Amino acid sequence: MVMAKAINPLEGVDLERFYLNCQTREGAPVVIRTIEPDDKYEMLALYPTLSQRSLYMRFFRVIQQPTLDEIERYTRVDPKTHLALVALWGPEQRLGAAGRLIRATPDSDVAELSCLVIDELQHRGLGRLLNTKLVEAGRLWGITRVIALVHSENTPMLRLLKGLGYPTELVYDEGEFTVTLDTHNPPCRDNATHHATLTAMHQGIEP
Ligand SMILES: CC(C)(COP(=O)(O)OP(=O)(O)OC[C@H]1O[C@@H](n2cnc3c(N)ncnc32)[C@H](O)[C@@H]1OP(=O)(O)O)[C@@H](O)C(=O)NCCC(=O)NCCS
């Protein structure tokens, strides 16, 4: 029997000019597109609205208000090693979230994922939507393994990653999980609940 080949829904998309109209589960319109240098202005303005907790979950340290030049490092990226997307929320297309995959060299098939949804829009499905598209885009970019470092108290991020539908491994060490998604194959609903915790060095950890 010939198995139908699962097609990546983003097949054919130009990753450097990615632009996708989507909706959250609640039906809110969201545009997901490649980050642009001028996003730095809106990012700079949003910084003071971010909670210390969100910043800590993203950067694992306390972050002071960055300068425009510092923000530019996030918005002006090398497309060979960075795949960076933003999510624009609602009819006004406000910047609501940013996520990226970074690989050490242009030919590496392993990338580290990170993302942040602004506090005001958290827990409304935006993170899931952005990361779903980011990982799908990453597969087209040649990524077969996505790695994320996640604080052990970051339940939403752990749930989100485990629910993307890729075989997932979690390794716990000193307060953080290294989560690895095997993205060789397209996501599969069965994988959403099928993950393995390889090392739990802390009693009572329930990822
Ligand atoms: C983690 C983060 C990206 C999640 O994005 P989000 O838009 O808030 O999350 P979503 O609404 O898409 O929900 C994702 C999952 O978390 C769950 N979740 C959401 N809020 C939750 C909460 N307060 N407690 C527990 N689970 C929660 C959702 O139920 C969902 O799981 P499900 O689909 O299995 O139901 C976002 O909260 C964030 O940016 N946090 C700060 C920065 C950060 O942690 N970055 C990740 C670093 S790797």
UniProtKB/TrEMBL annotation:
Residues 30-187 form the N-acetyltransferase domain. It comes from the Bacteria. InterPro entries: Acyl_CoA_acyltransferase (IPR016181), GNAT_dom (IPR000182). Coiled coil: none annotated. This is GNAT family N-acetyltransferase.
